[in-house]
Design goal:
The complex is a heterodimer of chains A (109) and B (307). Helix content of chain A is 11%, strand content 27%. Chain A is an alpha+beta fold. Chain A has one domain: Ubiquitin-like (UB roll) (Roll), CATH 3.10.20.30. Chain A has a five-stranded mixed sheet with strand order 2-1-7-3-5. In chain A, strands 4-6 form a two-stranded antiparallel ribbon. The radius of gyration of chain A is 14 Å and the shape is globular. By secondary structure, chain B is of the alpha/beta class. Chain B has helices spanning 19-29, 76-88, 161-171, 222-234, 287-291, 300-304; strands at 6-16, 33-37, 43-46, 56-60, 65-73, 94-96, 107-111, 117-121, 150-158, 175-181, 187-193, 201-205, 211-218, 239-245, 252-257, 263-268, 280-282. Chain B has a nine-stranded mixed sheet with strand order 14-15-16-13-9-12-11-10-17. An eight-stranded mixed sheet of chain B has the order 2-3-4-1-5-8-7-6. In chain B, a hairpin with a 5-residue loop joins strand 15 (252-257) and strand 16. Chain B starts with 5 loop residues before the first strand and ends with a helix. Classes of the chains: A alpha+beta (109), B alpha/beta (307). The interface between A and B is medium-sized, with 25 and 34 residues. The structure holds FE2/S2 (inorganic) cluster and fe (ii) ion (FE2). Fe (ii) ion (FE2) binds next to strand 9 and strand 13 of chain B.
């Protein structure tokens, strides 16, 4: 029988299921759910940064050290596109798109 | 011969997080050919239509991104002349020894205010395209994946792109071909060419230095771009956006990501640049159309996802 875990995005209350072989970001996208920003899907850009809240069980694939330094990793911070659940998970969304051209105006110089 | 000085983007050194997975992607999917590997574990690749022995160098690291972009000059005399001009302009040169990259001559490396490393070099071993220079066939058999023709350009994100662009236009002889102006009238996107292409390099103003937006490879036809997109779905490659058209450069394009999250592009059909043209200007209100001509709105993912 295929194991399925429940993923809850605390920020929005969004809930979906994910198998241990599938990364959380992909599960979210495939079910048409939203809540975690989607970027490269390869553990490189950091846009999908999340924090596992509580003691959820999970494993991670290779993630950019620039986006997840070792001290962050200890706090349960990881990239959703490299996050594989091994139990139900509650997540807080940390990553976001920086809109550098808001309404055609550059925000930061 | 009217084509001297900086000839073309000759190599990009890209950081990947898993070498085996990345080599499979760059060879089987993009269709580059692996030509070499060195004692540091770096892997050298070329596109089939390039004659020099490599244009992409992969290095395994714990974070993706770009180490440097190299531009090939027509001759060593041209390179020395340009290096002198860079020094006179106040730019420090770091000399990288002949052979530090296999089969590549001495390189003159410098940093731009955007935080990126660039190199000039004049010598790299040519191994050809397998077709020869006498009565050649039009293409070799046995190519894989998207069958890209060449490494074409990089688009880089960083601060101070006005100053950075000036180094290429005022010192290295590039032409500004297109630019985007902010509502205040300041250039915040620049496209520059060292050849007859619509661009050989591009910059976008961004607060964080030394970021890679994409490494681009050329195809010849729209049909080939569509076929590349088909291959992406066949092999579950992460697609960013496309196939679609750019307003800027008119290119027909698709963006996607390598296994480490570095953005790649395959495109076809930009225009021919001549140095007697005025650069094209895009205004802030039309930026959506400038970037994706059909969508006509700003795409947050495309604008802000970088490595
Ligand atoms: S989407 Fe880029 S790191 Fe997850
Ligand atoms: Fe491009």
């Amino acid at each position: 029988m295929l194991k399925k875990f429940i993923i809850v995005i605390e920020d929005t209350g969004e809930e979906f299921t994910c198998t241990p072989e599938r990364n959380v970001l992909k599960a979210m996208e495939q079910l048409g759910r939203k809540g975690i920003p989607v970027g490269c899907r390869g553990g490189g850009c950091g846009v999908c940064r999340v924090q596992v809240v509580g003691n959820g069980l999970y494993r991670t694939g290779k993630m950019s050290r620039e986006q997840v330094p070792a001290e962050d990793e200890e706090k349960g911070i990881c990239l959703a596109c490299k996050l594989f659940p091994e139990g139900d998970l509650n997540l807080k969304v940390l990553g976001k798109w920086q809109n550098i051209f808001l309404n055609g105006t550059q925000l930061q110089k | 011969m009217s084509f001297t000085g900086v000839m073309r983007p000759g190599h990009a050194a890209i950081r990947v997080m898993d070498m085996d997975e990345s080599v499979t992607y760059y060879t089987e999917r993009l269709g580059l050919i692996k030509t070499d590997e060195d004692d540091q574990g770096r892997v050298y690749l070329k596109a089939w239509d390039e004659l020099d022995c490599f244009s992409i160098v992969l290095r395994e690291a714990d974070a993706p991104g770009i180490d440097y972009t190299g531009y090939k000059t027509y001759s060593r005399a041209d390179m020395d002349d340009l290096v002198k001009k860079l020094e006179d302009y106040g730019i420090d040169i770091e000399w990288i020894a002949d052979g530090e990259l296999n089969n590549c001559g001495e390189r003159a490396r410098f940093q731009t205010p955007s935080g990126h490393s660039f190199e000039l070099y004049a010598d790299k071993k040519q191994i050809g395209d397998g077709l020869g220079r006498v009565n050649p066939n039009p293409w070799p058999e046995g190519l894989k994946g998207m069958q890209v023709y060449r490494f074409d350009h990089v688009l880089l994100y960083g601060p101070k792109i006005i100053e950075t662009t000036k180094i290429f236009t005022d010192v290295l002889g590039f032409d500004l071909t297109e630019r985007v102006l902010s509502p205040e009238g300041e250039m915040n996107v620049s496209f520059v060419s060292c050849s007859n292409k619509a661009h050989d390099l591009a910059f976008v103003e961004y607060p964080e230095p030394n970021k890679l937006h994409h490494v681009s490879f050329m195809l010849m036809t729209w049909e080939e771009v569509l076929r590349a997109a088909d291959l992406m779905s066949m092999h579950d490659i992460s697609i960013d956006i496309g196939p679609t058209r750019h307003g800027i450069t008119r290119g027909r394009t698709i963006y996607f990501f390598d296994p480490s999250g570095n953005r790649n592009e395959v495109f076809c059909g930009d225009y021919t640049w001549y140095p007697d043209r005025e650069p094209i200007t895009w205004t802030a209100e039309e930026l959506g159309r400038a970037i994706f001509y059909h969508d006509r709105r700003l795409n947050e993912n495309f604008l802000t996802v970088v490595t």
